[in-house]
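Bit of a strange request maybe. I'm writing a small parser for structure token strings and I need a real example to test against, not something I typed by hand. Could someone generate the tokens for this chain?
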Amino acid sequence: MNFFDIHTFETIREAYNMYDEVFIFDKEIKDSFQVVKLDHSVLEKTDVVSVTYNRVLIVHEGNGSIIIDGKQFHIQGPEVFVISKGQIFSFSHPTQLSGYEISFGDCFWEKAPSSASNCKLLLFNDAAIHQNFPLQEKDFTELIGVCEILFKEYESADYPNKLDAMAAYLKILMIKLANAMPSFQDGIDDFDNQIYRRFLELLSQQYNKMHDVLYYAEHLSVSPRKLSDISKKKSGKGAKEVIAGQVIAESKRLLQFSAKTIKEIAYHLAFSTPEQFSHFFKKHTDISPLEYRRMFVNIGR
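Reply from user aminoacidic:
Good idea to test on real output. This should exercise your parser:
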């Protein structure tokens, strides 16, 4: 399955024709952190948002749908939506939601205790794997409890170390979310989970240098077949697809938000030639890097 189907672009272009300046980038938020409480909030008209802040939507109930990178999800609740930096999303018209929306920049991972990194890897390194998942009643109750405390903290007057306190609550929320993921409900510390977490951690450090499954398998002391089997079991994608997903996600971010040339991006991501990078990108998205970048450059013209 391609990571960004060509029909996605047609859908977004149609949206551009329907509304003036419908496509927006995330607006800057104070301290790169925001908590919004949604109480039967009706979204009559929504924009197509290019995400620069990570988002978690914890939905109690609702109706309508959310479109993330061209894939439509019908909102029911209770459930979670994870949207990572570099993705594109919008809501159908209208959509009604109750729950919480937490937005935060990558700088908050630095403030959170180091043990939160595993949660970041599981939830955000390839958000498409865990874009949406249902919540059991117990998990939902625990998550809403943390959200209520986090919202109260966010709304309180500023005080020294307030950001550190919110980072600590964010860590708790991430741990609860990771534990609520269906693929990690059983045996959170079993061998396969440990290998998969270590694979994602190594990938986050090396994806711009190494794309070969064999490299990761050797460093994890398992066979490439075993690594792919574990990855398939935990994410629904083989190791090769997970690696490609990470490279594609970073490619999109660089094409959207950086001034690097396509040649520079290709070498930055360890491709031998710009042509090799273009072939890889088009294989997984049905569109060339240049066409992808032009889509954003031409917005609103």
